[in-house]
Amino acid sequence: MQWHGGYDAGLDFLTAPSMSTTPPFGTGDASYQAAGGIDGLRRLHPESLEQSRDKLACFLSGWLGGPKLFSEKYGSISIPSFHAQWPVDEALSSAWLGCMERAIALQPYSPEFAEYLLAQLRVPAHRVVQASRARHG
User: What are phi and psi of 43, to 5 degrees?
Assistant: First the structure.
């Protein structure tokens, strides 16, 4: 599957119109704003979400068949291994997927593509839980 609209579509995904959340997670970042009250997710990110936002946009670009911007800018990464530094369980993984689902819903994607994208995001989310469990027990 080719990247839906190229890298710009990835930025649209992350910079959808602001959602009303408490506390705010980052100006215009739909995926993180969707996390609004999910404190555990917010603690996994630095105070400034600028780099987290860029890393997610770069990752999604390459992951969905577009330019491999993450590896060009940040080098290679194993998503599960990187995230295993935190004790990520099923509840936290589900919360993250819920945030992504809300952010996807804000986009002008077809229902088929939205379902496909969320299904694809479940794969690394599950692998992060497995890697975290292996590291933290």
Answer: -65, -15
Cα distances (angstroms) measured from residue 4 to each of 14, 37, 60, 122: 14, 29, 10, 18
Mention every residue, 6+ apart, whose C-beta is less than 8 A from residue 8: none
pLDDT digits (tens, 9 = 90+) for 93-102: 998 888 888 8
pLDDT digits (tens, 9 = 90+) for 71-81: 999 999 899 99
Q: Which of 95, 56, 90 is nearest to 73 (CA)?
A: 56
What is the Cα–Cα distance from 4 to 50, expressed in whole angstroms? 23
The angle at the Cα of 47, spanning 31 to 128, to the nearest 5 degrees, equals: 55
Please state, as a whole number, how many other Cβ atoms lie within 10 Å of the Cβ of residue 65: 12
Kindly list the structural domains of the chain, giving each domain's residue range(s) and its CATH number in brackets, ordered by start: 7-136 (1.10.490.10)
Nearby residues of 110 by Cβ (< 8 Å), 6 or more positions away? none
